[in-house]
Amino acid sequence: MLAPGDVAPEFEAPTSDGTMLRLSSLRGAPVVVYFFPKASSMGCTRESLGFAGLFPSLAPHGVRVIGISVDDREHQTKFATDCSLPFPLLADPGKEIARRYGVLGAFGLARRVTFVLDRDLRVTEVIDTILPATHVEKVRRRLLPAPASPEGGTSR
Predict the structure, then answer these.
(1) Does a structural domain hold residue 47?
(2) Is 142 exposed, middle or buried (0-12, 13-18, 19+ CB in 10 A)?
(3) CATH number, domain at 138?
């Protein structure tokens, strides 16, 4: 699995809206790449809705979000539509992206792992836990400024 400091491997894959997306096209902006096991499953829905809720706070900072699973494009399209996701989901039915990132798990599904990439597409954080909400919270802490405390400092 990739580790902090690694350059994220290039990929090109179809998005839920049918367009092709290359990771390198996002260079110059922070990117959150989250892998999830199965479109429309309970945990993956919870995680994707969590990132959708966080997205309005990330977007003004230029942060891009991409979700990836080994589901085909049709499943990704339905899942993205059902959840009203404001970011693309990528289909990886050949499991090549999941393999390159080291997240292909049991039963041929991607493990729930999130990679936070800097503007040069270098990994700055890896979140590897089955708990969907933890991924969203750690991304929020990593990429958003801490709220100011009443005393004028930050609350961190």
Answers:
(1) yes
(2) middle
(3) 3.40.30.10
Domain assignment present for residue 16? The answer is no
CA dist., res. 80 & res. 112, Å (int): 17
Question: pLDDT tens-digit profile of 109-133?
Answer: 999 999 999 999 999 999 999 999 9
What is the reported pTM? Answer: 0.92
Residue 83 annotated to the active site: no
For residue 126, is it left (φ>0), alpha (ψ between -120 and 50) or beta?
Answer: beta
What pLDDT digit, counting tens, does each position of 7-61 carry? 999 999 999 888 999 999 999 999 999 999 999 999 999 999 999 999 999 999 9
Q: Looking at 23, 31, 44, 91, which residue is catalytic? A: 44
* 58 occurs within a structural domain: yes
